[in-house]
Amino acid sequence: MKAHEPRIFRTAFARFVAIQAAGVPDGSLFLSDIQALHAVADALKRAGRRIPQGAYGRLHAVWHVGSHLETLALGQPEKWTLMMRVVDNLRETQLSDALADAAAVLSPECAAQLKAVKLISVDAHTCIESMHRGPYGSEAPTAQKIERFARERGLVLQGDLHAVYLSNPDYVPPEHVRTLVRMPVLNPL
Prior knowledge:
single chain, alpha+beta, 8 strands
């Protein structure tokens, strides 16, 4: 896929550790949630419960904006689900152990977020995806390209925007950050 060109894509069934919350993107709650998920993933890795090859460290976010994509560009309070992929056979007891291990290494503020961590499953589905290059929070134009792509092909989008963050902003300049933007399709071809 050339950068920025939307395409139709079929995801696979996957399990995630996830936190649902609401607030201002990049606010303190959002950042605490990210730290909490990374601590849980690290604890699972240390315990030998492998994170799927190539998936460890990739943060996913589902932005619950529905048809209100313009709110992405405004920095308004939003609802989100932050997720990190785990093996399909991870049990709740294994997650509980990892949560306890993560609590021991986090600040009290971040450790408090661990109460919200859940194990969730996401069914396989068809979506339209496109690579976005640029700073976090600037994905709205890419989502609008996906909407145009769907409209031109008679496809109906259903659901929320799903972002897969491929770059670490601690090491990559904002203009080079890569984010895979996905939107589910109601009526796949």
